[in-house]
């Protein structure tokens, strides 16, 4: 194998590349050093803390999250990717409209230092999209959130507010859950 | 009239055959469900002073650890070591480890030291109850009466766990427990105490063959009775959806093992050759990490037969490697395991000296890549971070490419694994759950 590859991808709906890069480049380095996108955070560098989570959209398969710090460009070559910069929408006048997940995080003040937030935003977004296709009973929302967000580490320990925000936005969005909610949960922010 | 006579002779003949058949079956049952003569107790428990009991108790704990009893007799839910409940999936059905705590209702609280020896060395529990050979009495048959008595002394002082046993789910006819007696007639060696005091090699052999019962997983099994194939002792075997590799001195040397590395692997669960996974992870947790270093050295000495081992010798990569597999490796694995397979100390294992790619079957490689490995504290300060599973990212074709690349680069193996081979291995893995 050659030491370099020509990397192309669709990132946040824009085609990028081909860019000549080392074959062993990790995606986070590509995003920050080559594409100038620094919203994706380098945390542990070992795929453990999930601060660097990005979304890979595969036609027919749906969307999955991957840690950009240990996922190399050779695997992402040609794929369709979303980073935290692509989650909010921008209207014709250039006004940025946060996504429902981002709004919920703002309303719940879910972050403290905010370093892990891009990863949480991306994972929660994928969860919302999964539930659109396969709604869960309203009482099982916590389980679904835990399954999706469990690998994410927040060193400020802001989990309660992150989880509350995601629970709220899921329950308020029609079509993501079935049946009526019978569980009562204390409002933890 | 002649016809009637002929018929009656025929019936009589058939009756005689049936009687002989029943008599033979009864004889076989009696032989297979008998424990025969057992050696006398090594101590008189009634006369033991507190200090002598203490010595016996400590020795009993060592026997319990070296015998790896807890790996099968723990609760998968609570982790209670003697509660039982660990499932063992066999081609004939699933069995569950029993409660071996001193609970009088659910465990072995009413057993005498004789009863324990009979169960461990001959597979016969009180009331002539034949145990399934999943309890490795075919290996434990050489346990010394002294070790068995020490084990009894230790077990009886543990806290009783009041958890009922879970009945096995064996398929017909294997659910007819007394029939195990017939298996015993053919496959059960006579209980015979092993003298392990001769030298280090003998001690090692006792630990490997008897208490550690390593051959139960690491030897192929016969097709007819599913007993250990003693003619292919420690030659490696696929069991419960993973490959228990060959442990002969030649095979160990071929894969780069040394005595020191074996000791390190037994003690910490980690060595340059890899990390303990699958069933070996519980062997580490409950057994080898607790064993005295001298015993681990004896095991390593026996397994290598005290031969000079060449040590780590990474395989020469093949000149042509699977390029799609290389791309997958660099894209999905190299972030942790390094482009050259160098790994990261105490975090992710190196691939270049790892033995998994060297095995004759790719099943373990496929399983680890598909399922990942949970973050684990190993032992004596070693730990490994989470390895994620890639089942949702790799189809059979891609898995075959990746596995071929790894086997060609680090395993000294050909890149001939096909997508349908992968699908077959995945079926074997899923069947074991």
UniProtKB/TrEMBL annotation, chain A:
InterPro entries: 2Fe-2S-bd, 2Fe-2S-bd_dom_sf, 2Fe-2S_ferredoxin-like_sf, 2Fe-2S_ferredoxin-type, Aldehyde_Oxdr_Iron-Sulfur, Beta-grasp_dom_sf. One of its GO terms (molecular function) is 2 iron, 2 sulfur cluster binding. It comes from the Bacteria. Residues 5-87 form the 2Fe-2S ferredoxin-type domain. SUPFAM superfamilies: 2Fe-2S ferredoxin-like (SSF54292), CO dehydrogenase ISP C-domain like (SSF47741). This is (2Fe-2S)-binding protein. It comes from Diaphorobacter ruginosibacter.
TrEMBL record, chain B:
Keywords: Electron transport, Heme, Iron, Metal-binding, Transport. Binds 3 heme c groups covalently per subunit. One of its GO terms (molecular function) is iron ion binding. Coiled coil: none annotated. Gene3D superfamilies: Cytochrome c-like domain. Transmembrane segments: none annotated. InterPro entries: Cyt_c-like_dom, Cyt_c-like_dom_sf, Cyt_C_IC, Cytochrome_c-type_DH, Membr-bd_ADH_cyt_c. Heme c 2 binds at residues 214, 217-218. This is Cytochrome c. It comes from Diaphorobacter ruginosibacter. The lineage of its organism: Bacteria, Pseudomonadati, Pseudomonadota, Betaproteobacteria, Burkholderiales.
